[in-house]
Amino acid sequence: MNSDSFIQRIKIDSRVALSVVDFDLESGILRHVGIRGKATLEKVNPSRLKRFVGKYLGHNTKDWNQWFVKNIVDPLEVMIEIQSDSTVAKDVPFF
User: Fold this and answer.
1) What is the pLDDT of residues 42-54, one digit of tens each?
2) Most-buried pick from 12, 38, 83, 89 (CB within 10 A)?
């Protein structure tokens, strides 16, 4: 994963922007959170990674899809920490 282009770009220029959008046309939902700042590459913290993955796969690791763990989770070599310079949060329903 260290060869991932995103990781390589952070090594060259640590300025990053992160945007999360929750959009549902039928319900008229539009929520947006944006963060700009500087990223640092950190070693994987196993307990933190387990908590993060557990949010999506459940807290019982025996129930996790082993293909996903072997091919996606286990190869992870870095975690990215963002020191925020600015943050914006918007809830803009359109109905």
Assistant:
1) 999 999 999 999 9
2) 38
